[in-house]
Design goal:
Layout (H helix, E strand, L loop, with lengths): L10 E6 L4 H16 L8 E6 L5 H15 L7 H9 L1 E5 L9 H7 L7 E6 L6 H10 L7 E6 L6 H12 L7 E4 L6 H11 L13 E9 L8 H26 L8 H14 L8 H4 E6 L2 E3 L2 E3 L2 H5 L9 E6 L11 E6 L6 E8 L18 E7 L3 E9 L8 E9 H5 L6 H11 L16 H14 L5 E3 L8 H5 L11
Parallel strand pairs: 1-2, 1-4, 2-3, 4-5, 5-6, 7-12, 8-17
Antiparallel strand pairs: 7-13, 8-11, 9-10, 11-12, 13-14, 14-15, 15-16
Helix pairs in contact: 1-2, 1-13, 5-6, 8-9, 8-14
Length: 493
């Protein structure tokens, strides 16, 4: 069974960077699934753009190979794959050249001025402004045009503002969709439902009842050919300042007045402004940085980060843990422990809300048996929500207690295929729904960038060599949380 279909208006989607990893691994499979579910109108066109010269047929074959690699075999139906590929055409275009491909793109878009037109910039951020300038100068921007860019946007506040300025010269703010694919995940969206569609959680969603929050985003793979880019970002800028801070905002924000893009962004910006700055003297106390070395992972040898990078002088972190604090009434005294990294034991993304212990036990001798309640929201793999409670162990012999979960696995509960994040995000852009867009930094929201920079600057400024660790080892972050008398939630613990 597939998800419920909601029709969208006719559209043209142009993907710049169409021969890159993001397009092959995520975007084309996402579009195929929406085609498979009947959500893409018959007249919709998908146009791939990249510098490499090739025919439509050649690009269709490359896309077909990507579907074979990244779409499960039981979801690849030959007739649907064939009809999907017929939607796709290709234009060789050099965004840095004045006429290299732009007239051909204009021709490919002929007859579609009255339909929705979306440009997905699956390219390096330093090309965002150049491509937008080309779209404007060649008159390819219509009133129904949207441009999609994915974070991170720039390497600093200054570069992010410069990029936003260059994009803003061509597109209105309402036409710009800055997306974070984490916001499209089912569990992330369900966090909003848990908080604001139930009377159970919101009254206790504060420092009076919550002891601390943990957010983990762990990857078992290494940098996988992205070492050049990764060395300019590291785990801190690649994950913490983008995906993880978005999760912090969703956990910590005040209830918005309504469920729309502007109201959500306003509340998230308040959280960012309330983050306690990490100054130079605090770095060693509230952060841990690590870097994986050569070793064994998944049953075979793997190179270390420095070997993948090709030099041995990099102090870039491939793992980072941070203790963050939000200085407002709701969260005063509640630490947010966040960690992320590569070459960790398993792929796992989760949010763990740890509630305070009961103030007094009426059960004599049971104090050591009573664990605190936990709400665990699993983002990947196996999306779901688990609430840990204390109950009496069945049987005679007095009051013995057991910590048990109320468990909701999305796959088991709904018995449907849950759309991937990019499927939802692309369709939301086509619909003009910006609630999953993020990081608006122009106009009154531009100040959000300075808050993020205050987190990264002092941590990276020290440039101290990170802790070297074996691939697959537990992350070197225990002291960060243990010194506060707490313990990281580990799978199976």
């Amino acid at each position: 069974m597939t998800s419920r279909i909601i029709a969208v208006d006719p559209f043209d989607l142009v993907v710049f960077g169409a021969t890159g990893d993001l397009a092959y691994r995520k975007l084309m499979p996402a579009l195929y699934h929406r085609h498979r579910d009947g959500q893409i109108p018959e007249v919709a066109r998908i146009i791939g753009c990249s510098r490499r010269p090739m025919s439509d047929e050649a690009y269709q074959k490359l896309t077909e190979a990507a579907l074979e690699k990244f779409v499960p075999i039981d979801e690849r139906e030959p007739e649907l794959v064939a009809s999907f590929l017929k939607r796709i055409s290709y234009v060789a275009i050099d965004a840095t050249a004045e006429k290299a491909g732009w007239p051909e793109l204009a021709k490919a878009l002929e007859g579609g001025k009255d339909r929705i037109r979306a440009f997905y910039l699956a390219v390096a951020p330093d090309l965002f402004g150049i491509i937008c300038e080309g779209l404007g100068s060649h008159h390819l921007v219509t009133p129904k045009t949207r441009v999609i860019i994915e974070k991170p946007i720039g390497k600093s506040l200054a570069s992010a503002n410069a990029l936003n300025d260059s994009i803003g010269k061509v597109f209105k703010e309402s036409q710009i969709y800055r997306i974070d694919h984490y916001l499209g995940k089912e569990t992330v969206q369900n966090l909003m439902a848990l908080r604001f569609a139930n009377a159970l959680f919101e009254p206790i969603w504060n420092a009076n009842h919550i002891d601390h929050v943990q957010i983990t985003v762990a990857e078992s793979l290494g940098v996988e050919g992205r070492a050049g880019y990764y060395d300019t970002a590291g785990a801190l800028r690649d994950m913490v300042q983008n995906h993880i801070l978005q999760l912090v905002c969703l956990v910590a924000m005040e209830p918005p007045g309504r469920f729309d893009a502007d109201a959500l962004r306003d509340e998230k910006l308040k959280v960012l402004r309330a983050l306690k700055p990490i100054v130079d003297g605090d770095v060693d106390n509230v952060t841990v940085r690590g870097q994986y070395k050569a070793g064994a992972s998944a049953g075979g040898p793997v190179p270390g980060y420095l070997e993948e990078l090709g030099r041995d002088d990099s102090t870039t972190e491939t793992f980072v843990a941070v203790k963050a604090e939000i200085e407002n009434w709701r969260w005063a005294g509640v630490p947010f422990y966040i960690r992320t990294g590569k070459r960790l034991p398993s792929r796992l993304s989760e949010i763990v809300v740890n509630f305070k212990p009961i103030p007094h036990s009426i059960f004599e001798g049971a104090a050591g048996q009573l664990a605190s309640n936990q709400l665990i929201m699993r983002l990947q793999p196996d999306e779901g929500v688990r609430l840990w409670l204390m109950i009496k162990d069945p049987g005679p012999g007095g009051m013995r207690f057991r910590h048990v979960p109320l468990d909701m696995s999305f796959a088991e509960t709904f018995k449907i295929r849950s759309p991937e994040a990019y499927e939802r995000l692309i369709m939301d852009v086509i619909r003009g729904n910006a609630t999953c867009s993020c990081g608006v930094m122009r106009s009154r929201r531009r100040g959000s960038g300075s808050t993020r920079s205050s987190t990264a600057g002092p941590i990276r400024a020290k440039r101290r060599r990170p802790i070297r660790r074996e691939p697959g080892d537990r992350p070197p972050s225990i002291a960060l949380i243990e010194r506060d008398g707490r313990t990281w939630h580990e799978e199976g613990a």
